[in-house]
UniProtKB/TrEMBL annotation:
<keyword id="KW-0186">Copper</keyword>
<feature type="domain" description="Tyrosinase copper-binding">
    <location>
        <begin position="101"/>
        <end position="118"/>
    </location>
</feature>
<dbReference type="GO" id="GO:0046872">
    <property type="term" value="F:metal ion binding"/>
</dbReference>
<dbReference type="InterPro" id="IPR050316">
    <property type="entry name" value="Tyrosinase/Hemocyanin"/>
</dbReference>
<dbReference type="GO" id="GO:0016491">
    <property type="term" value="F:oxidoreductase activity"/>
</dbReference>
<dbReference type="InterPro" id="IPR008922">
    <property type="entry name" value="Di-copper_centre_dom_sf"/>
</dbReference>
<protein>
    <submittedName>
        <fullName>Di-copper centre-containing protein</fullName>
    </submittedName>
</protein>
<feature type="domain" description="Tyrosinase copper-binding">
    <location>
        <begin position="273"/>
        <end position="284"/>
    </location>
</feature>
<dbReference type="InterPro" id="IPR002227">
    <property type="entry name" value="Tyrosinase_Cu-bd"/>
</dbReference>
<dbReference type="Pfam" id="PF00264">
    <property type="entry name" value="Tyrosinase"/>
</dbReference>
<keyword id="KW-0732">Signal</keyword>
<feature type="signal peptide">
    <location>
        <begin position="1"/>
        <end position="20"/>
    </location>
</feature>
<keyword id="KW-0479">Metal-binding</keyword>
Length: 359
């Protein structure tokens, strides 16, 4: 009874916190949490984050999850009622994939998604830490052989590359037993793919490009120097954001490794791999860094609500989405998993509903 009461109190607090600011109010936080790079965490801190993520997979599916995009557009399977609560986060990202990528929602929605995930780890699984990020510029020079992939500790390690003899499943680390439901039942897959851009997609113009070159430190610095929000998001989303997803491939890219069995390719089920949360925390950090580099950047925003991926010309004209245009009062969708908020609520990480900074 005490555990149930504690859970209900925590849930009430969570809902009141995330739902308190439906319009972009400013309320400076007193003591912001500090998000650190994964390798800066102590072993116990790593263990706690991994434990909490795995914990969510032991909660049942939330029937409140209500897809809002027609499946003829989202191209995803129906909700699996026997899936887990962790799978619900995956499904939310799948359902909204055409609304939250290459539109104005990309950066604010993923910032909000990551925050909501962190809060869920706290109120459902007793997590007391802060969302870590993965600075992949450290690993970019020799990505495949980086020590990042060498931590096989079953409690505090993220695990390495998938085993091609075992359906590309990751055999070690703390997520080796994380059971996933979408798009079909499996364990986390990873498949190093150095040149992933040889696919018919208007965003990618150089099929021979080695993905890691887009997130070397000099390339990231060049992106941070871009003065215009639209061009900044374009360079970040189509560059290092997409490249990291695709170089790790498999679950993080939402695709199937060659010769993998029991695998159905599908769009944007990237949160299947918990690296998603570390990766997007790094994307959020780069936006945070860009916002703080110049005062004019702090609330700079521009984007539409519709992907413009019909042609190279349409994408170059509207890389952050075509009309109808969004603004700071535009409300971001959550498919019933948690209260919705406006873009303006998450523009500043130390006001509104947010209270964190990056180390």
């Amino acid at each position: 009874m005490f555990v149930l009461w504690t859970f209900l109190v925590s849930l009430t607090i969570f809902v009141s916190v995330v739902g308190a600011f439906s319009t972009h109010q400013k309320k400076a936080c007193i003591k912001p949490a500090i998000r650190k790079e994964w390798r800066a965490l102590r072993a116990q801190e790593k263990m706690e984050w991994i434990r909490a993520v795995n914990c969510l997979s032991h909660f049942p599916h939330d029937p409140a999850l209500t897809p809002r995009v027609n499946r003829s557009v989202s191209l995803i399977p129906p909700v699996n009622a026997s899936s887990s609560y962790y799978d619900d986060f995956v499904y939310l990202h799948m359902d909204l994939n055409t609304k939250i990528h290459f539109t104005g929602e990309f950066l604010p929605w993923h910032r909000w998604f990551l925050y909501a995930f962190e809060e869920t780890l706290k109120y459902r699984c007793g997590y007391h830490g802060v969302s870590p990020y993965w600075n992949w510029t450290i690993d970019a020079p020799n990505f495949f052989e980086s020590s990042f992939w060498k931590d096989s500790n079953p409690e505090s390690g993220l695990g390495g590359w998938g085993d091609p003899k075992a359906d590309y499943s990751v055999p070690d680390g703390g997520f080796r037993k994380l059971h996933l439901s979408y798009p079909s039942p499996h364990i986390v897959r990873r498949n190093f793919t150095l040149r992933p851009f040889d696919i018919p997609f208007v965003v990618f113009t150089d099929p021979s490009l080695e993905a890691n070159t887009t997130f070397l430190a000099p390339a990231i610095e060049k992106i941070l120097e871009i003065p215009d929000y639209k061009e900044f998001q374009k360079a970040l989303e189509a560059g290092p954001h997409g490249a990291v997803h695709l170089i790790v491939s498999a679950d993080l890219a939402g695709n199937c490794p060659q010769n993998a069995s029991n695998c159905i390719p599908g769009p944007k089920w990237a949160p299947n791999d918990p690296l998603f949360w570390l990766h997007h925390a790094m994307i959020d950090k780069l936006w945070y860094d860009w916002q703080h580099r110049n005062q004019a950047n702090a609330e700079s925003f521009f984007g539409g609500s519709v992907e413009a991926l019909q042609s190279v010309e349409s994408y170059n004209k509207y890389p952050t989405g075509a009309p109808p245009f969004l603004n700071l009062s535009s409300v971001m969708p959550a498919d019933g998993l948690f209260p919705e908020v406006a873009i303006g609520d998450v523009m500043d990480t130390t006001s509104g509903i947010l209270c964190y900074v990056y180390e």
